[in-house]
Amino acid sequence: MPLDILSKTPIPDKLPKQMQETINELKKSLDKNDCLKQAYEILTAKYRGQRIKTYTKLFNVFSKDIDKMWSQTGFLHCANINYLMRTLLIKSGFFNNSDIALKWTMVWHVSPHQYIHVIINNKKINIDVWASSRGIKFGDYAHGFH
């Protein structure tokens, strides 16, 4: 089954060394908001979505190799990026799996797209790292022609 498509893939116990170092820094966050914003900045600096590669690299969405995903930069599928985001947030100790919900929308009205809701103080915050390179800001998500 593809990673994080129909349900949340379990977070691994063993993580890449560089990812664990990033998590150790996130553990120093002031609070949940600070941790989420830092994780968002880390991932948006490292990864981005690309329409064409979503289709030309379609089978990469089936990868569950967190070492390989973390070592990459540039394009990564939305579900893979969200898996990395969930891993950072949960391993930071600020969030539980129940604080993060997988959400689906249609981009350009034809392409399924995943983003996440992160719950902080009973408020749902949209997180869409994949679409950040297309101008979608923290707290928003790609949908329709937006």
Notable characteristics:
alpha+beta; 3-stranded antiparallel beta sheet; two-stranded parallel sheet; 5 strands; globular
Overall geometry: globular
> Numbering strands along the chain, what is their spatial order in the largest sheet?
3-4-5
Distance between the termini: 29 Å
| Average pLDDT rating | 90
Helix-strand makeup class? alpha+beta
In terms of DSSP E residues, the strand content is 15-25%
What is the CA-based Rg, rounded? 14 Å
- N-to-C order of helices and strands: HHEHHEHEEE
Our count of domains comes out at 1
Kindly state the percentage of residues in helix: 25-40%
Total number of helical segments?
Answer: 5
What does it look like?
With 146 residues, this protein is an alpha+beta fold. The chain has one domain (17-134). The chain contains 5 helices and 5 strands, in the order ααβααβαβββ. The strands form 2 sheets. Strands 3-4-5 form a 3-stranded antiparallel sheet, covered by helices on one side. A two-stranded parallel ribbon has the order 1-2. A hairpin with a 3-residue loop joins strand 3 and strand 4 (111-120). The chain is globular, with a radius of gyration of 14 Å. The model has no long low-confidence stretch (mean pLDDT 90).
